[in-house]
Amino acid sequence: MRFRRLALSTAVAGLLFGPVTPVLAAPGAPTLTGTESRDCAPISPQSPEDAHHDDSCLAVAVALADLPEVGEETEVTVQVRTTATQDALDLELLLPAHLAWVQAPEGFDVTTAASTIPVEGGEVHRARGSRTVAADAPLTLTGRVRAVAEGPAEIRATATADKAVDTASGSSFLTLDGANSTEGIAVRTVNAVAVTDSPSTRASLLWAHKPVAAPTAPAQPGKGQACVKGSWNYVEHTGYTRVSANAGVSAYDADPNGEDELLATGLTDEYGRYRLCFDNQDPGDRTQDVFVRFATENVHWKIQANRTKAAYHFDTGIRSNVKTGQTVDLGAVQPAAPELMRAVQAFDTLGTAWNFTPGDCWDDRDATCRQGAVNWEPDSTTCCYANLQEDASYIGGSTPDTAVVTLHEFGHSLMDDVYDDWWPDTPNCSPHIMHKVSSAGCAWTEGWATYFAGTVLQDPYFRWGDGRLLDYENATWGTVEPGRAWENGDAVEGRVTGALHDLSDASTHESGDKFAEDPRGPLWTTFLDHRSSSFRDFWNQRAAAGYDVGPAALNALYYNTIDYR
User: Fold this and answer.
1) Which secondary structure element, helix H or strand E, spans residue 537, and what is its range?
2) What is the DSSP string of 5-43?
3) For residue range 195-221, what is the model confidence (pLDDT) as tens digits?
């Protein structure tokens, strides 16, 4: 069977889509780079498998001398390499609340700031400074850190050169403990929950909620039945508490021998609420000892661990002796482990895509729906690409904070689903950069995935969590930005993204763009009904189907330098 990976990382010179080499880049955090304005060569991938690589002249690695227990210190080493003759670097070293600086690298300023990202523990400690690095002399920085609290920790280093044109990051992960700290962040099969103590809201109101299945539980227990109810939530990277809709939820009767009996299954509703009813005839005492399990999974999508391919599960405590006729309220809960909030956030991001996508399957032409799968772990540096052999995508540990990346990679899997595992020929796609010519097939597959993500989010900008953004809607003939001179035509993926966006957005403010249609109308129908090898192929199929390819539509393409007039 063929093996193919479609990957996403980013660049100031453009959006370079390729898996981040683990030792070189922070997981899930697309890196702004731009080597076309620099006298240097991109760093080569670490292994032949990493055929797509960051278009950066920098590489950053982070290492610890040992694994400190709480109260202990250790040395942290950061190494930065460059292929430029010489680079003046701005450097940032970031510690979560569980670690503190004993001694930052010499000359670095240390500040502490509040953080809303759950896994960072409420605050971050930043050490900032400047250095020079040369191609023949890698830069090595050392400092000392102390473990101050138990929990997961990521030490991240970022190097920026050439006036913010070229950036690269590296990370080291560990789990701090009072007696036995360990490397990495462990992934458990079943996890605990904690009470949600903040009001919860939907993360996205862009599209109406589309239930995966209709509710089945009655309003009251039936004869011989009991019920449980409550709600499932998470804290996203902004610090807001959100509801988790369409999440799998099951009720079990706890067995002292570990052979728990499944009582009922269902899904959370639009507001993360659930209600499950079940026969309450446990042999012996006519009561059940009930707990509820939540999952990052339903029949249509799943967030799963990289290695086990199992969804993440979270169990409530046991409510003993639930009586017949009783409805037990288990309350509003969320993952107890802050490092697993991102698993539920990624699940919810795909839920927004589900709300957008018309039909009963991701591919509404399917008689049997394919479940979309995204591989994620809290310390994953396997990012970001779609593995079409596995019918799944891979995202990094912090990628859920950046919804556009999660959705771009899932967009590749969706296209593979719609195309029934056929894939266009995509030469010159490693590396590929948003504003530069690659090939017609590469530009179509990559451009469509970014369009899908932007349309689901109703946002024509590629946004990062730190405030950086890239505008693909307003790039037109002659657009030149710092580190980026846009090339023209339908072999440029950013032009394909912009053209699709301008065909389907309601905004017609650009000169010459006076066309707008429902993104779930002719564009989506053409996508479902054909296998397109390029944007031109897609356009011809749209025309053959009788959809509008007239002057206004052609002008929308022309604004994006695709001239089919």
Assistant:
1) helix 535-544
2) EEE----SSS-B-SPBPTTTS-TT-PPP--GGGSSS-PP
3) 998 999 999 999 999 999 988 888 889
Tokens of 501: 């966006």
**Contact (Cβ atoms closer than 8 angstroms) between residue 149 and residue 161:** no
Tokens of 519: 């993104």
Contacts with 265 (C-beta within 8 Å, 6 or more apart), sequence order:
248, 249, 250, 251, 276
Cβ neighbour number for residue 500 with a 10 Å cutoff: 26
For tokens 């502490």, name the residue: 112
SS3 (DSSP) at 254: coil
Number of Cα atoms under 13 Å in the Cβ half of residue 452: 28
Residue in 497, 471, 499 with CA at minimum distance from that of residue 484: 471
Q: Cis before residue 384, ω within 30 degrees of 0?
A: yes
- Helix 403-418 with 341-356: angle, nearest 10 deg: 50
Q: How far apart are the first and last CA of the chain?
A: 41
Q: What's 127's DSSP letter?
A: E
Query: What DSSP string runs through 363-408?
Result: STT-SSPPPEEEE--TT---BSEEETTTTEEE--TTGGGSHHHHHH
Q: For residue 142, which of 200, 180, 87, 102 has the smallest C-alpha distance? A: 102
CA distances from 462 to 276, 331, 434, 446, 451 (A): 40, 37, 11, 14, 10
By three-state DSSP, how is residue 491 classified?
Answer: coil
| Rounded CA separation 513/36 (Å) | 30
The token pair at 296 is 């990052």
Least confident of 161-175, 205-219, 246-260: 161-175
Query: 10 Å Cβ neighbour count for 355?
Result: 20
- Return all residues near 25 (Cβ < 8 A) that are at least 6 apart: 9, 31, 54, 60, 168, 169, 170, 381, 383
Assessment of whether the complete model's pTM goes beyond 0.85: yes
Q: Output the CA torsion sign for 476, 165, 393, 211.
A: negative
**What is d(CA 332, CA 350) in angstroms, rounded to the nearest whole number?**
22
Residues 294-341: pLDDT tens digits?
Answer: 999 999 999 999 999 999 999 999 999 999 999 999 999 999 999 999
DSSP-assigned beta bridge partners for residue 20: 383
- Written as one letter, the residue type at 402 is T
DSSP H or E stretch at residue 279: strand 273-279
Q: Residue 172 and residue 149: Cα distance in Å, rounded?
A: 17
Fill in the amino acid letter for 333. Answer: V
